[in-house]
What we know:
alpha/beta; UDP-N-acetylmuramoyl-L-alanine:D-glutamate ligase; 12 helices; 10 strands; binds ligand NPW; binds adenosine-5'-diphosphate; EC 4.2.1.136; NADP
Amino acid sequence: MHTLANPHRQAYNQAMSHYQSNSPALWEALLPSPHSNSHKYSRGYVLIQGGYPVTGAARLAALAAARSGAGITAIAVPAAALAIYASQLLSIMAKPYASTLDLYALIHDPRIGAFLIGPGAGASKETRETTLTMLQTAKPVVIDADALTAFARKSDSLKKAILGQCVLTPHDGEFEKLFGLQPADQLPERIAQALVAARQTNAIILLKGANTIIAAPDERVIVNERAPATLATAGAGDVLAGLITGLLAQGMPAFEAAAAAVWLHSTAAELHGIGLIAEDLPGLIPAAWRQLTP
Ligand SMILES: NC(=O)C1=CN([C@@H]2O[C@H](COP(=O)(O)OP(=O)(O)OC[C@H]3O[C@@H](n4cnc5c(N)ncnc54)[C@H](OP(=O)(O)O)[C@@H]3O)[C@@H](O)[C@H]2O)[C@@H](O)CC1
Ligand SMILES: Nc1ncnc2c1ncn2[C@@H]1O[C@H](COP(=O)(O)OP(=O)(O)O)[C@@H](O)[C@H]1O
């Protein structure tokens, strides 16, 4: 059994022999595109758990999900925070809940295509339980930020709960809290650690940083080596999480959706250049998309 602390030599060798640099050729054919007979629900419905008092993160994620082409994006918000969310959202729907039962009813809407939990959610027992409820639906789930921290040293319980496609999007600090191991600086070791984590959780592991690693339980690995350093800005990770969720809701497979989202995210940042803040990214996703072969 490989462990994260001591990835077996085989995992290390696989890391080096398998990994491919992120490029559109790896996932372009699987990108969603709208059909003439589609309607907003059939184009993909994203539901994001919105937190309180940290409300910006889920809204950034929602804008990115919508810009990825999802037909409808909604944020489940605590009733007390409805006015805050609604005051700065137009096409994104804020769906208030007054109790856990209300929230779980929103999650069980059969039209939902993919879930996101974590940005601004709070690393609490409630966040952990809501994550498990989303996972029980067996629909695609992206677990980011506070929802990763809510499972600190509990990756086993996460693994047991993962029934469908799932993407975990840790930065180094979140990876360490979740798996109890600091990611290595050197690429081969980082890749091997991400691969073992993917196998242990049966999820796609997207380990963020200047180089982002996308590792699958079946040992596929893509490394994105072209992100501009301007992405190291508050909220950029929330935008990435929303982008992945939007692609998943439109039916893209998780590994390719993660790689495509990272590429679009990097390209949007490049298009903007210096002075980037996270708010700039969602609006640049269409321009990034247009860089692809028609
Ligand atoms: N507009 C909004 O509403 C925004 C809301 N946001 C939301 O706020 C919530 C908390 O987010 P957060 O940024 O306060 O906490 P988190 O990212 O967990 O960092 C905690 C500690 O981890 C460590 N650390 C180690 N490696 C690291 C790395 N590679 N990158 C970063 N950190 C690394 C580092 O500790 P150090 O290593 O410095 O001791 C750091 O101090 C969360 O819900 C998020 O979604 C934000 O997205 C911003 C925009
Ligand atoms: N030095 C860097 N160069 C390029 N990209 C970076 C660098 N540092 C961070 N990033 C990217 O910026 C994003 C930061 O996400 P995250 O750490 O989750 O921040 P936040 O929680 O504030 O949204 C990730 O996509 C990460 O890969």
